[in-house]
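This protein record is not my work; I was only asked to verify it. Take the sequence as given and treat only the tokens as open to question. I have pasted the whole thing underneath without changing anything:
***
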Amino acid sequence: MKVTRRKFIKSITTLIGVGIGTTATPMRLVATTEHAPKSPPAMAAKKPAAQPIRALAPKPAAKNTTTKPVARAAAVTPAKIHSPAQTGDITPKKQATQTVDDNANAMAKTGLYAPILMYHHIGGKPGPYNVSITEFNMQMRWLNEHDYVTVSIDQIAAALRGKGTLPAKPVAITFDDGWRNQLNALPIMQDYGFTATFYLVANYITPKSNYFFDWGHVETVVNYGHQLGSHSGQHLAETRFSGDALTKDVTAARDVIKQHLGLTTTTHAYPYGITNTTVMKAVANAGYTAAVGVWGHVTQSLGQIYKLHRLDARGGITQSNFGNLIQGILTQHNDTPTSVPSLTEIAPEAPSARLGPDSR
């Protein structure tokens, strides 16, 4: 059939008209206003892996040698080891404190509100135990904007024993293992006036590793005003030990910290969060004031002072869920891990590293 030019143009016009006349339902974008004015840039895009950090040149802060509540400090300009998103203006806020009576009343109901955060990697290759620099900055900013004040594990223990007080909104920040990329957290925490406890493994502190602290890095952590804690001798589940071998492992990190820096370590963290009655008794008999595991709660109690709960801070959590986690709205696992995490989960940056004794 012969198609004329006029009929061809008319057919094309008809098809186009049908396409134009078909309208789709437009997508509605719903703005969230909860933290919109102050939220940091979106974190959907992953940043490149941070390179291992070998040295810092911070302006030393006074060593945190007391257990007095940490005052929120004004913003400072530390020596940066990264380029995170701008934190914006940081306004120090004066905090009310919980009295000993408040603590007793709270414990009589649900326990003493004192969330403890546990971190492993800050920056580096993505993994379940990795929190990106942008995410960590967002989390610290959320704490600051919601009036949280950092406290030490010693301060929590003192409050539980009725020998001290806590701010109205306390939070303890802890880091496990002594991974070198934890140095990325130092200037961010200093920006907000926050302090933390770094739990170290005796056999991991060595200049022969590209992934863990050497003693120069440990000194840098102390110079920023942070505390050190014991995290065993070899990073093995301490339930495998008994007698003198258990005592030796429980005190190994404390002993090397005392030997190299002359500092007294007063709290202990169980490798993998695994413990039992025998291990807890060994920790108490060694003279530690408290010990921490995991167990995913925001409240603490005197009866659990050698099994304090920590929140497992991992990568990929939204700002809203982080807030819910801190406030106890979002819960995590509630019991001791039944298995040891795999090496690739714990150490995504060091697939060849050993989680046992380090060959120094």
In short: The chain has a mean pLDDT of 74. The chain has ten helices and 14 strands. The domain at 98-346 is CATH 3.20.20.370 (TIM Barrel). The longest strand covers residues 170-177.
